[in-house]
Amino acid sequence: MRALAVATVALAALSGGAGSVTAADLPFQRPVSAGVFSWTSWYVGGFAGAAWTSNSLTSSPCGFPVTLDCGRAAPLAAATETLSYTMTPSAIGGVAAGYNYQIPGSAIVFGFETEFGALRLKGSSAFATVPNLTAGATIGNWYNATTLRVGWAWDRLLFYGKGGLAVSTIETSLADGNGLLGTATAKRDVMGWAWGAGLEFVFAPNWSVKAEYLWLGVNHGVGVCAQAVPGAPAPGLFCSSTTSQAVQTAKIGINYLFGVGPTYARY
Whole-prediction pTM value? Predict the structure, then answer.
């Protein structure tokens, strides 16, 4: 009985000592924080949507500041007249590329983006004072918007605003159904402001989807003069000036983000 008690005490002592040595010998490991998603990345993508604008305005010859013969005989004579006509909406599509930078430890995201797209808004109307003389306008067939972006991120969801420059082309034309004037067209590349806002969400590793509104300030004017054909009763020029309005766009897009994802910080 005495030998059993001694053995029991010895076994307990050995067990306690082994436990103390094991705990003391374990290396200390600092905990690692959970991954924090960061928007910092280059990206490329594509988009599709729609574009629309307000009515275009075309003024008659006497309203255009060039040398004119506004008192010519009918049917080429015209008093000052301004046409207002609807521009048909357009589908748009294109590509975009840019860069995002998220301040470490902050929800603020800065970036820049450039996009190239196709659009074509078109309209026309006839002068009341010059029968069968039609004026027309076209915006497009292309545009570019280069903008700076600033946004606020909730993990993989980003709300952003953007602003910068827009470039596109405006074309105007005159066509005379009476055959007294030759058909004339004029085209001008125009630049204006661009601004908009949108939402973007990273739904899979390296892939995001966005919805965006963008305003394109291509509200500029361009003039055109149609030459009277040989033998017309009133030789000379018939000129007009056309002013387009700003274009509004709405689109959805998908981006591929290079290297975006969680960052790990030790503490």
Answer: 0.78
